[in-house]
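re: that complex we talked abt at group meeting.

here r the seqs, copy pasted straight from the sheet so there may be weird spacing, ignore it
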Amino acid sequence: MADSINDRKTLLISGASSGIGHAVCKRLASSETQVFTVDIECAPPDVEVANHYQADLSVPAEVEKLTRTIRNDIDISSISSLINVAGIPGTKPAEQVFQVNLLTVRFLSRQLAAHMRPGGTIVNVGSISGNNWGQRIDTYKELLALDDAGARVWWQNKMKAVEVDPYTFSKEAVIVWTMLQAGELRGTGLRCNVVSPGPVETPLLPTFRDQIGDERIDWVLHHSGRAAQPDEIAQAIEWLAIGESSWVNGHHLVVDGGYTSGLLSGWVDTENAPEPRVTFVD
Ligand code: NAI
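got the structure back, here u go
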């Protein structure tokens, strides 16, 4: 049987003001939960939250200040789920992409996991852009063995040498990080999983079109049938955070309407696929 925590769940959700994070808040905010949110923007619309923290998660000093503030405001051990949704596209500077999509996720996860009680969960958001993480597993293990300062220096020195663009890199890395954290958390009763969406109708989607190209995105949508609605990703996040998923740990859950299954089993015709317009660091 799963370990249990307090009946009333206390949730901390990043990237809560828009898109998938907002959908997660709408789905999870109820009389049985206490929802705290974090975003660079104002509080999520249409949702009553216990408190909203405005912070730029691309700035390490702000992330550290955020954790201190949260620790002052909340009994941090009462947080039952951390849901790391905030993410930025590859059209932003590579240092910021690396920080928000990977290092901040790792920092917040470690800070909170040190205090969370058995039964607690962490859910990260990856992307199907990160599906090929296995091709670079040794690189990610080398990187993720470093502390944050060391990892930033590593990225400065090696971002031009990695085989993929910064967004793809950050998403592959956060998938591997989630798997590694499941190992770090052995024996604590905490679980950590990552949800990887395909294209989702949020304000981020047009930036992916800019980055990857309309042809490639439309080709993906042709195979999956359509883009997801944000709530369809929130459904999976809810299950991993507070649903009946007690033995699911370190799992990479792809939520893309079947597109990845087509790549893996061959019903997606990759030979005629338009090449993604990938942005490498010059
Ligand atoms: P969105 O742009 O609607 O939401 C992202 C949220 O993160 C926004 O509220 C934004 O203000 C916040 N945010 C951005 N930079 C921040 C910063 N420096 N500090 C604090 N908050 C910040 O985008 P969406 O689509 O909801 O993205 C959520 C996650 O889903 C991201 O991690 C993204 O990479 C991932 N994803 C999205 C896909 C899509 O097609 N929309 C596909 C695959 C993954």
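couple things i noticed - Strands lie at 9-14, 33-39, 51-54, 81-84, 121-125, 191-197, 252-255. Residues 94-113 form the longest helix (20 residues).
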